[in-house]
């Protein structure tokens, strides 16, 4: 099963997202792990990041995209039992890493994200253990909401959002969708749509500036939420795609409003209807991204700027964001509501669901 | 009489639009033919399209810009009588073509456009027989409205709009304006402004995605309506100009709203006030156009993508468009109403009309 | 004291703005002169304009950036007394110039701007005598408002705004802010915020097209007002920066609304929060600027186009602007009101003021 690759030339292609069949078929209500056991199925990226260690490659101490070692590490769990065990123990351990995970209060509360309290700002990293390619499930989205809630209340002046690994975020996990919707269409379509709505609302309502650092591909909802963030810095390695129509989905994350506003209706629709993929440079020249940096110095450039920004007056930052955002706040709330209603309807209707299933099934059997 | 050429360097220039004086002076209410009889007066294009046959050049079988032979052909009628005759017979024939026009139901209902029902989509081609350079008259605009109405009701998933010839659309026909407004200013200014309003409304209200393929220059109203379409693909050969102020016209087609939204107020106003011409690449980098293709493969690229888009789920396409458009629908309706009111006032006022006439007269005598 | 230089590479840097300490400390209510007496302190520009005479360099007849001799010349007054004297005499004189200033009615009414009535348009030039780098004080802003009021009432079809010197406008004068706010925080914060509000409103409400020619750096409020103008032409030498957060200020000039609209929220916020500097080319490709011209022919290019635009019909120009602007008029009024309320609060609060002072003090002591 892959995201639909558009018919454009280019070195990039959309990563294949594997279905973890146990999750799909047993209809378990417990959080499922969508990460495939065999690592040879991992996302093949056209350019492999040399300097950022991937624990799968060498088993050495693993570092996040943004430079310092991850407190909770990156886990490879082959069953929900193992996961459960790890959680109960209050720490995670992967033998292949030979790496003792330091655990602190903020990290132990989250499984699929890492939260770091830095001087003047909070750093949230997507680091999904239950899905591949930082794909989103309702559970992961709830963790992000909780992290945003915490950062709103503490003394952070701003929030930095980034990702561990080579993919920023691949959007909603299709295998999760299929698994749940085939179990209880009516109930699950509501539950998932509500989770998307709350996730997007958390971004809309967050009052401090959100800086987002895009290290790699941002797909679907992972791309849609970028205009809800305030400053968007991207690595040359990043690219952007929202292949809604091809995936039998309607736009989400307020992209039906923000994309036309930012990119112009012609390009926005090409992205939403035709799955047009934008390179980092294109996204920057069209306004989705503030600035593009070389992959090798991306982390330093981002950290330098975030620290400088965090030295500004907190009131000035928050009030400036308020001035910029307050005028579109209610529009975004409405758009988000409508988009999620539409997704719910689509998932709830036999026809819409069939279309989604047949699309995903075709993709799977194509491989 | 020419559109005003702006003072910018560049290989392109705006095509001279000839007045067919019989149409201007006799005030006939029957549809007039503005195409000049002598073909030597045709629009001189800087790059002549080699592979797309123009029947005037060689009399061979003529093909449309988008590849397959046109069912209704391209006619050269030297009087409204001949036209009338052809219409009554239910088919058209041009001796120079040695080409028997195949006639089918949908084609015979239109004179200045061609409508093709393809698999999954409707293809509307501007192919004006009564004006040069696909200029618009109320009659032609009504044909487009009817075609859009039909496509809205049938099983098409989307609409493809393109043009026959080397010019996409040169906007309102100035000689028509002069001819009619000098006959009965009050009545005709209302009638023409209403036709513009309904034409623009037809685009605003069309619920399925509209893909537009711009093979050559798009001027005035022909450029203004592009932001009302959903995906805009252009050939390298296309360029865009809305020289409203220079033509003593105010903006139309909602461009007073959509152009600033898409291009930024600085460039939008330079286009509206100073007649700034945009190349295809400029229009693309500023958001008016989704993507630019090489002229030689333009048709294939467009068809490939349209067919792919037409394979998407119809509900998803329509609902996605609804999400993108519903939020600006009422704004666009208001803007269109105001713009057309302003045009009516301008055409109706002695002063406004004199300004338009003297401008067009000066242009004619300059030649 | 300097504007904060952002951490980006590039040949440009923000000009040092000197505090004239007499103005700061005595709290005089009379207009103060912030221009430093010694010319060696002048803004060092990376590229000195060779062909545009600076009277300080050679004492020859001085010409404005836009080509013709300035009627009121450029004054170098070393005390407010000398200034006062000059004003009472009704003319200005600078011995070093050996230049008798021709005085006409419109010029003698302004001190920090020059107003020229040209055929079909009014030309307003920022030429501040009381501040360096065309920085703005409430008094200068009031002069601009008066000039706009006059141009609205006379037979000009449009207004051309440009600057004398190498800097277009460096925004609010920080030394003025410090001087006044440290004298009477409550009263002065209201007075200055009201002056900003009225200045911005004058642009919002001006009904004829405003063309602005940016010969050099445009900073803070000097950059913020550009989207309120209609056509923006810039010299290659121009650059744009609104380092609000770094200066402990919130956005002004409606930039909290117009910048995200034009540049996209990602770049707009990078400018407002991180002080991102835009080159002329960047500003053009992102929509803030209509077109960029070479510095050597900038004046001619602008004048050519302005004259062409001034040959258009006045009603068409005004009604076109009305169509483009009326839809956002009330939004802009609201945004301006909110922005100025926020500035007032910030200046009025002990904390906000301390932050501004400490920032400016640090900058001064860094030198």
From TrEMBL, chains A, B, C:
Q: State any GO CC term.
A: nucleus
- Domain of life, per the record? Eukaryota
Name of the featured protein: Chromodomain Y like 2
**Pfam families given in the database record:** ECH_1
Q: What is the lineage of its organism?
A: Eukaryota, Metazoa, Chordata, Craniata, Vertebrata
Tell where it localizes.
Nucleus
Q: What PANTHER family does UniProt report for this protein, alphabetically?
A: CHROMODOMAIN Y-LIKE PROTEIN 2, PTHR43684
The keyword Nucleus is annotated on this UniProt entry: yes
Recite the UniProt keywords alphabetically. Nucleus
Q: What are this entry's molecular-function GO terms?
A: transcription corepressor activity
Keyword Nucleus on this protein?
Answer: yes
Question: What is the organism of origin for this protein?
Answer: Labrus bergylta (ballan wrasse)
């Amino acid at each position: 099963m892959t995201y639909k690759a558009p018919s454009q030339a280019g070195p990039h292609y959309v990563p294949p997202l594997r279905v973890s069949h146990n999750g799909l078929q047993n209809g378990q209500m417990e959080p499922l792990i969508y990460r495939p056991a065999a690592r040879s199925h991992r996302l093949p990226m056209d350019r492999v990041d040399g300097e950022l260690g991937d624990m799968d490659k060498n088993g050495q101490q693993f570092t996040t995209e943004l430079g310092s070692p991850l407190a909770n590490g990156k886990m490879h769990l082959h069953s929900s039992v193992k996961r459960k065990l790890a959680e109960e123990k209050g720490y995670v351990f992967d033998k292949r890493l030979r790496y003792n995970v330091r655990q602190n209060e903020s990290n132990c509360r989250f499984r699929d994200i890492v939260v770091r309290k830095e001087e003047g700002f909070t750093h949230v990293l997507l680091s999904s253990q239950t899905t591949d390619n930082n794909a989103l499930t309702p559970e992961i989205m709830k963790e992000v909401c909780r992290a945003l809630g915490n950062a709103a209340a503490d003394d952070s002046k701003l929030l930095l959002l980034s990702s561990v690994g080579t993919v920023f975020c691949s959007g909603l996990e299709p295998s999760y969708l299929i698994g749940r919707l085939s179990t209880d269409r009516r109930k699950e379509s509501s539950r998932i749509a509500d989770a998307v709505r709350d996730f997007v609302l958390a971004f809309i309502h967050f009052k401090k500036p959100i800086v987002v650092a895009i290290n790699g591909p941002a797909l679907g909802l992972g791309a849609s939420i970028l205009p809800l963030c305030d400053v968007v810095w991207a690595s040359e390695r990043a690219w952007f795609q929202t292949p809604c129509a091809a995936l039998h989905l309607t736009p989400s994350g307020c992209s039906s409003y923000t994309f036309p506003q930012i990119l112009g209706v012609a390009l926005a629709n090409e992205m939403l209807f035709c799955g047009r993929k934008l390179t980092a440079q294109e996204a920057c020249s069209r306004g989705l991204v503030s600035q593009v940096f070389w992959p090798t110095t991306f982390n330093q450039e981002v950290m330098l700027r975030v620290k400088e920004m965090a030295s500004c007056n907190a009131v000035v930052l928050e009030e400036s964001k308020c001035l910029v955002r307050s005028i579109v706040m209610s529009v975004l709330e409405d758009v988000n509501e409508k988009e999620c209603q539409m997704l719910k309807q689509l998932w709830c209707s036999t026809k819409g669901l069939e279309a989604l299933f047949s699309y995903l099934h075709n993709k799977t059997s194509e491989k």
